[in-house]
Design goal:
Elements: H1 18-22, E1 28-35, H2 43-52, E2 57-61, H3 72-75, E3 81-86, E4 100-105, E5 111-118, E6 121-129, E7 140-148, H4 154-165, E8 174-179, H5 197-204, E9 208-209, E10 222-226, E11 231-237, E12 245-253, H6 271-280, H7 283-287, H8 292-310, H9 324-342
Parallel strand pairs: 1-2, 7-8
Antiparallel strand pairs: 1-12, 2-4, 3-4, 5-6, 6-7, 8-10, 9-10, 11-12
Length: about 350
């Protein structure tokens, strides 16, 4: 018996209206999704994606990480990104595998909502804040990354559907993406030869599935669902495992870049010159004809002029969001690395091997 599901859900907002279309930026919010089959061996791919800044959101499944792996494996030297992960609990019965992760640019102010774990099934939920746009009917987007093993029992999927139901809200769009390993469902015709909890959920909550191409051989395994019409330009990308990767855009502009606001670095100030300016200034002559208010204004301007001349301003740094002790450790390591690279080959002692 087939279970027919509507192909397109009814959006709460007409995103193709002229008012919304005219407000769009030429730089849409882009998302990259991939089944990794171990991210440990794909770190160079991930570093390239992060450094390109094309994608503000990177969704990964089958990360194969565990508690011994640091988040640095995901974000590397890209501190402007934040990582969220849910690793599979390794057991003697099931061994390695599974796991999901989301990597989000900090301009979206991502916040972890919750995670889900069941037998051979993992998911993680993160809210993205888009309050930099006043013309949208929502201020957040909820994104859920999923991995379901082919061996996961039906009860795990039912538990996940129950988990999803509590996360839905009419106030914000919800994007669900990942490898569901449900090859017997016809996602183009949106029908199934047997009853399936996921199809029922999609139908009941007006979700649409947006990936129109198979991602592994002829199977539609990696899927992207959304309950609003905000997803477009879904395209296959080069794989980093035995699955095609997926890229798509949201009908929402990317957040504007965060501009660095400089501050005075007083520890590098020229205090000798500052003291000399104050000591040698003829305050009697300067303030003689001024009342209290004008004297205060004069003094403030004088102080600011001296500080502008003698105190350097801070410069933007990729480490700005880290604690001071971490900045110091990183700076020391960088200096040591630079010192070693500047040494010539004659600087190092060598041991000759007798012929």
């Amino acid at each position: 018996m087939s279970v027919a599901i509507p192909l397109v859900s009814t959006p709460l907002v007409n995103f193709s209206s002229p008012q919304f279309r005219n407000s769009r930026s030429p730089d849409p919010l882009s998302i990259f999704y991939a089944n990794c089959r171990s991210i440990r061996s794909k770190s160079h791919h991930l570093s390239f994606l992060l450094s390109s800044f094309k994608y503000r959101i990177i969704s990964l499944c089958e990360t194969w990480l565990d508690v011994s792996d640091s988040d640095a494996l995901l974000i590397g030297q890209s501190p402007e990104f934040l990582s969220f992960r849910n690793d599979r609990v390794i057991s003697d019965e099931y061994g390695r595998g599974g796991g999901v992760a989301l990597i989000v640019h900090n301009s979206l102010s991502p916040a972890l909502v919750s995670s889900f774990s069941s037998l051979l099934f993992e998911a993680i939920t993160v809210d993205l804040h888009i309050d930099y746009r006043n013309d949208l009917p929502f201020r957040k987007i909820r994104i859920i990354t999923v991995y379901r093993s082919p061996s996961s029992p039906a009860q795990s999927l039912s538990s996940f559907i129950a988990y999803l139901t509590h996360l839905l809200s009419s106030d914000l769009p919800c994007i669900i993406l990942g490898d569901f390993n449900l090859p017997h469902i016809d996602w183009l015709g949106l029908s199934s030869p047997s009853q399936n909890d996921l199809l029922d959920f999609v139908s009941d909550h007006h979700f649409s599935q947006f990936v129109p191409f198979p991602t592994r051989f002829n199977n539609f395994l990696d899927l992207v669902f959304c309950d609003r019409d905000i997803i477009h330009n879904v395209s296959p990308l080069l794989p980093i495992s035995d699955h095609l990767s997926v890229g798509f855009e949201l009908r929402i502009p990317s957040p504007p870049p965060r501009h660095h606001v400089p501050s005075r670095v007083y520890r590098l100030a020229d205090w000798t010159t500052i003291n000399s300016c104050f000591f040698n200034h003829d305050w009697t002559v300067a303030l003689r004809d001024l009342n209290a208010t004008d004297s205060f204004i004069y003094f403030v301007e004088f102080v600011n002029n001296v500080l502008d001349s003698c105190v350097p301003l801070s410069k933007p740094s990729s480490l700005c969001r880290y604690p001071r002790n971490v900045k110091i450790l990183f700076s020391n390591a960088l200096e040591m690395s630079n010192d070693e690279s500047s040494m010539g080959p004659d600087t190092y002692s060598t041991t000759s091997t007798p012929a």
